[in-house]
Amino acid sequence: MTAAPQSPTPIPERHRSNPFATRFTRPGRVPPLDATGRAIDVTAVVESLPGGVWAIEAPHGHGKTTLLLAVLEAAAARGRGTAFIQVRSWRDAWPALTAVASMRRSGVVGVDGWEQLPPGAAAIIRLAARWRTGCVLATTHRPLGLRVLARCRTTPALLAAIIDRLPGHEGHIAPADVSDAFHRHKGNVREALYDLYDRFERRGR
Q1: How far apart are CA 106 and CA 81, in angstroms?
Q2: pLDDT in tens, 158-173
Q3: Among 68, 102, 123, 124, which is least packed, fewest CB within 10 Å?
């Protein structure tokens, strides 16, 4: 027997704070989850981190930065020096290189947006990482010749598990909304959450 589809319930005034706002959903606020929606053991990841440059690879909105930040936090908690560099243009190549060249031997440097590095700077960073015998974790959207530490994959179950962790949405977003948002945005969880933000806002009017 198939259950009747659930309809969203009206949103009471006390719940009008949108749980899909970026302050609740941005990287670092939700723990990294695997494709089934279970929490990833980032401590185990840190304990097995190899040296050199490694990629966390996936398309846009698939949780790369979330995983990277969680690994850096776990590494810092274990006393390993860490740094996080967001690369948005060629101008960020120098801070990235400086962070890698100055990291401790057990350090972990996160480079978010490896594709934005000029090829020459990327090559120098790889050499510096080998020299310092630390670990550089780079987020990439596609294969770039780096060894791959993790490939992030999304599913409707993962999106549902994220939503279960958000405050004050109970009953206002139906399972059908979650599935529709996921497929509408082709697995891009970030865009799906923006979509659900808009749906929540419309139902609160």
Answers
A1: 7
A2: 999 999 988 876 667 8
A3: 123
